[in-house]
Amino acid sequence: MADRLDRYRAMRDPARTPEPFGAGPERAIAGASRLFVVQKHAARRLHWDFRLELGGTLRSWAVPKGPSADPADKRMAVEVEDHPIEYADFEGTIPAGNYGAGAVIVWDRGAWQPVGDPVAGLAEGKLVFLLHGYKLRGEWTLVRTRRAQGGKQEWLLLKHRGDAFAGPGRPFPQESVLSGRLLEEVAAGTSRADAAVREAVRLGAKERRLAEKDLAPMLAELRDAAFDDAGWLFELKYDGYRLLARREGARAELRYRSGDDATALFPEVAKAIEMLPVDAVVDGEVVVLGADGRPSFQALQKRGQLARREDVARAAIEAPATLFAFDLLAVGGRDVRPLPLAERKQLLADVVPRLGPVRFADHVEGRGLALFREVEARGLEGIVAKRADAPYRAGRSSAWQKIRLACAGDFAVVGFTAPRAGRARFGALLLAVFDGEGFVFAGSVGSGFTDRQLDDLHARLAPRIRKTPPCRGPVPRGRGNTWVDPEVVVEVRYREWTSDGLLRQPVFLRVRDDKRPEEAIREAAAAHDPPPPSHAPAADARQVKITNPDKVFFPADGITKGELVAYHRAIAPFMLPFLADRPLVLTRYPDGIDGKSFFQKDAPEWRPPWMRTVTVHAEETGRDLEHFLVDDADGLAWLVNLGTIPIHVFASRTPALERPDWCVVDLDPKEAPFGHVVRLARAVHALCEQLGLPSYAKTTGQKGLHVLVPVGGQLTHDQARTLGELLARAVEGEHPDISTTARAIPARGGRVYLDYLQNGWGKTIAAPYTVRPRPGAPVSTPLRWSEVNARLDPSRFTIRNVPARAEKLGADPLRPVLDARPDLVAALARLRERLEGRGARPAR
């Protein structure tokens, strides 16, 4: 590594520039990861420095026009000297007279993932990789050209087609993801935060440094139901740890609500706080966002339990935390806590970035019911209502009220019961709440644990065993109860409190390492909380017994029911996001694919109590049917044990069943050549790109392909069908010799049928990764658009290779269809103009 940085150091004088010079090979190797950074740099000429961490340095290219999300743009990238890893944090001004003099901001950063061997790719002149940044996402390529500038090799930086992050007309925000400043502000030595300080002075904020005792968070009371009120602000309730963050003299400090220091655990957040352009104290919630953009508490817990500095440094890049800042306690040495919340949030918006490891948590004014409905539709945790005129006061206050989707609370663990029914370690946890004087027994929780959680919790509790209960109240007596000192806090979901002060139908959710036992209080509204929605996990223990696992289901291939179950357990992490909260339609083959089969929509009464269902009105029969909903691998295994091949899914999710997530064009060849299917799929994709719509492909598992266009719940089912018809007719008009929208088989004339009628209320498609009842056990498989070519053979994707393929790809190419919300109004307008200009008959 020293050799690779020799050129960098020879071009700079450490006495004259603030740029880092590297901490040596041992630092780089210890923190080895896959970091990428893009720095916007106003040197002699404005450019963007694109850097990838590899082999202990940042391999670097200067991109004069900056990265582009448009695959049609081929951005020149001039290879320059390697930079030290520490340069990824550099933001500021390189003084005049130095190499590269001018302002620099951290324009984007994150993790990168090579596709193939990156060292070989660079040597061969083609490096393919995935970016997981705040601005740059998806698949990219660096391709070496034959040109050079002043001895520097030229490359091209290209965005791949076919993912949700590609497309023309997608401008990137230009602010730094660390400080929130524009490049021009860094050059001028100013920022928006200067205006925030002036405004705080104008509003009468007193000059005062907040002491440690002042850094106590304001807390919300529990409320039963959402409401509308013009005097209130409504925010998302984030599923994370509460943090108070202070920036003082370019030094950052992060503290949990308990007062414990969290600075070293979240260095990426601390760095962003350190780089704020003004001293401030910020209140917020730290989360780790999953691949679906939602907070993952499990991922956050893993971050919080890391101890080795190297592990923390790696996780900060590969599983970065985000602090959603929702309040401001001080700015520029001024105490703003007495100001109304609405004014504090206006100041906060000028202090913290909108994108990056620290970002402004926005709100809606007055419309709590609409926000709660949206949160419920997306399966988030709840909302927080805050009085717009309220000052910031430590402790619990009726001026802040949290409204959850289900009853949940924090409880101190005061003991455990003996294991039973074959379970290891313990049967249930004994729980208590703190009432200010001591702990009061609250009942027990015996469901919701994984085997690993049973082991981990028992290991934590065993050293804390004591002889007597550490709590009062309706404490259980007799043998079988082991008591412990109340030091571990867990979160539990429950239906209600009984008149005896005990929890009814509790389910373990997780350990709360960020909270102390004294914070496990019974909140005021808990006694009359509403029951949880139908998707709350049942308290029954899950037992999935596979009957006749050796029974052959695919005779030509010798594939057994047991192998089919094993496939579904292996593919569950990739398949479940497409099943979550969607009504399912099953086709059952109890004797294998050569036996009789039947459809099943209505779940039987003898189903396990933990298998969820949703009531859907069937228009064709006029009946209400109980469709299965699947949450996890156990649910999948239970359905497969019934002989289910395949699973079909609705395009919409509960509770917003009237709003689909996608529109599908089903390319059904019947006897047409598969090459025509490929041509037409690419034609649909090209059309969508011209309209500004993302689109994604998957095999059906049979002879055809599905092209899915995300609509993000913005259309009704009828409107989605109209969109599908417009797309199909546009493609039919361009390829009348090989495609048709005629449904009757005789009218197709050997052409591929562009089926848009699979859109509509109650219509389903084969679920991604579902198995089809054909020899070879083919699988409906998500594809990258680069795979949709003349070499594509859908029969190659089977239960024997698809799990390994999914693991190798990492990023599911179809996954973005679940969350994308394109501009449908503009796209439909362009599509109608296209059809009417061609004289085609538009859909009604």
Automatic annotation (TrEMBL):
<dbReference type="InterPro" id="IPR012310">
    <property type="entry name" value="DNA_ligase_ATP-dep_cent"/>
</dbReference>
<keyword id="KW-0227">DNA damage</keyword>
<keyword id="KW-0540">Nuclease</keyword>
<keyword id="KW-0238">DNA-binding</keyword>
<dbReference type="Pfam" id="PF04679">
    <property type="entry name" value="DNA_ligase_A_C"/>
</dbReference>
<keyword id="KW-0479">Metal-binding</keyword>
<feature type="region of interest" description="Disordered">
    <location>
        <begin position="1"/>
        <end position="24"/>
    </location>
</feature>
<keyword id="KW-0511">Multifunctional enzyme</keyword>
<keyword id="KW-0378">Hydrolase</keyword>
<keyword id="KW-0548">Nucleotidyltransferase</keyword>
<dbReference type="Pfam" id="PF01068">
    <property type="entry name" value="DNA_ligase_A_M"/>
</dbReference>
<dbReference type="Pfam" id="PF21686">
    <property type="entry name" value="LigD_Prim-Pol"/>
</dbReference>
<keyword id="KW-0436">Ligase</keyword>
<feature type="domain" description="ATP-dependent DNA ligase family profile">
    <location>
        <begin position="314"/>
        <end position="435"/>
    </location>
</feature>
<dbReference type="InterPro" id="IPR014144">
    <property type="entry name" value="LigD_PE_domain"/>
</dbReference>
<keyword id="KW-0547">Nucleotide-binding</keyword>
<dbReference type="Pfam" id="PF13298">
    <property type="entry name" value="LigD_N"/>
</dbReference>
<dbReference type="GO" id="GO:0016874">
    <property type="term" value="F:ligase activity"/>
</dbReference>
<keyword id="KW-0808">Transferase</keyword>
<keyword id="KW-0234">DNA repair</keyword>
<keyword id="KW-0464">Manganese</keyword>
<keyword id="KW-0233">DNA recombination</keyword>
<dbReference type="InterPro" id="IPR014145">
    <property type="entry name" value="LigD_pol_dom"/>
</dbReference>
<keyword id="KW-0269">Exonuclease</keyword>
<feature type="compositionally biased region" description="Basic and acidic residues">
    <location>
        <begin position="1"/>
        <end position="16"/>
    </location>
</feature>
<dbReference type="InterPro" id="IPR052171">
    <property type="entry name" value="NHEJ_LigD"/>
</dbReference>
<protein>
    <recommendedName>
        <fullName>DNA ligase (ATP)</fullName>
        <ecNumber>6.5.1.1</ecNumber>
    </recommendedName>
</protein>
<dbReference type="InterPro" id="IPR012340">
    <property type="entry name" value="NA-bd_OB-fold"/>
</dbReference>
<dbReference type="InterPro" id="IPR014143">
    <property type="entry name" value="NHEJ_ligase_prk"/>
</dbReference>
<keyword id="KW-0239">DNA-directed DNA polymerase</keyword>
<keyword id="KW-0067">ATP-binding</keyword>
<dbReference type="InterPro" id="IPR012309">
    <property type="entry name" value="DNA_ligase_ATP-dep_C"/>
</dbReference>
<dbReference type="InterPro" id="IPR014146">
    <property type="entry name" value="LigD_ligase_dom"/>
</dbReference>
